[in-house]
Amino acid sequence: MTKLAMGLHGQVHETTVRVLYGDTDAGGVVYNGTYLRFFEQGRGELMRDNGLSYKGLEELGYILPVVESYIRYKAPALYDDLLTIKTCITEVTPFSCRFHCHIYRDGTLIVKGFTKHAAIIRDGSLTALPADYLTGMQALAK
Predict the structure, then answer these.
(1) Opening angle at CA 33, ends 28 and 108, nearest 5
(2) What CA–CA distance (Å, rounded) separates 63 from 13?
């Protein structure tokens, strides 16, 4: 896989979001940084719907900060648009994971990208994911 490959594979999760007025910039389009929040919503719902909630991971003392991200903007989203967020896990190691995300408006791809996350504990030390999360995430990536 090339570094900027952003296809969807494995188990693809779908959720929707309505663009709020506060998501837009002075030009009336979704502010570019807002898409990272939409990516977060997509991956959070993917994890939660598969019994691997971020909240549960944090309660165990782990966090998954973003260490790398990439977004390719293809078309704008506007206030009140209903967007479909498709998310999948494409890569899982004991110490990191990568999520791909595609966002659609009316069936048209408008944004695609990825986020890569490191597994750390609260003091910032790199650590292996808990075994149940690692196994569950690996299953979703297949």
Answers:
(1) 65
(2) 21
pLDDT in tens, the chain (142 residues): 456 778 898 899 999 999 999 999 998 999 999 999 999 999 999 999 999 999 999 999 999 999 999 999 999 999 999 999 999 999 999 999 999 999 999 999 999 999 999 999 999 999 999 999 999 999 999 8
Rounded distance between C-alpha atoms, residue 39 and residue 21, angstroms: 18
Per DSSP, the residues of 96-132 read EEEEEEEEEETTEEEEEEEEEEE-EETTS-B-PPPHH
Q: Which active-site residues does the annotation give?
A: 25
Q: All domains of the chain, ordered by start, with CATH?
A: 13-141 (3.10.129.10)
CB 96, CB 66: distance < 8 Å: no
Can you read off the two tokens belonging to residue 20?
Answer: 């709020």
